[in-house]
Amino acid sequence: MNISIREITENDPLIISNSFKEQGWNKPVSLYEGYIAEQNNGERVTLIAEVDGLFGGYVNVIWKSYYPAFRDNAIPEVSDFNVLLKYRRLGIGSKLMDRAEEIISERSSVSGIGVGVFSDYGNAQVLYVKRGYVPDGKGIHNGQHYVKYGDRVVIDDDIVLYFTKKLND
């Protein structure tokens, strides 16, 4: 099995969207077309993992995070990290994260990442901790503000705990 990592190209959006559709996930072509536009503008880097020449997963590095604590402290964010179900537990995610952190380390000594808080994100939660990420200590964020004691929330993809990692140690 040969795993390679490269940046997204104009040929990828339909392949990526169809690959996720095959496993029952809706990830529209327009999402990846937007990633290419933002990569061309220097706002992000989208990394593609290929397994023996076939799409296996991707991850983004966002230079100016939407998360206020990262944006205000110029912490680049690893974002929208996905590996196809059929390729999980083969080291693809680790290779994507290695390359994302390598790219971030060229500009920053800290990498940030957010992760959902319910069981669908369990594997990612464990991976990030094993890679040295620690919670940023600000609590759960819902995309608009921090969730406070007594708040009622619907647990969905917007309920996120953010982590940071010191690079270059």
Summarize the structure.
The protein is of the alpha+beta class and about 170 residues long. It contains five helices and seven strands.
Characterization of this structure:
- A hairpin with a 2-residue loop joins β2 and β3 (54-62).
- This protein has helices spanning 12-22, 29-40, 68-72, 92-105, 122-130; strands at residues 3-7, 44-51, 54-62, 77-83, 110-116, 134-141, 160-166.
- With 169 residues, the chain is α+β, with helices and mostly antiparallel strands.
- The protein starts with a strand and ends with a strand.
- It has one domain: Gcn5-related N-acetyltransferase (GNAT) (Aminopeptidase, 3-Layer(aba) Sandwich).
- α1 runs antiparallel to α2 (29-40).
Quickly count the domains. 1
Low-confidence stretches: none
Query: From the 3D coordinates, which CATH architecture would you assign?
Result: 3-Layer(aba) Sandwich
Taking the alpha carbons of the first and last residues, their distance comes to 31 Å
Please report which band the strand proportion falls in: under 5%, 5-15%, 15-25%, 25-35%, 35-45% or over 45%: 25-35%
The CATH topology assignment is: Aminopeptidase
Shape: globular
Give the neighbour order of strands across the main sheet.
1-2-3-4-5-7-6
Radius of gyration: 16 Å
Q: Residue-averaged pLDDT, rounded?
A: 93
Main beta sheet: 7 strands, mixed
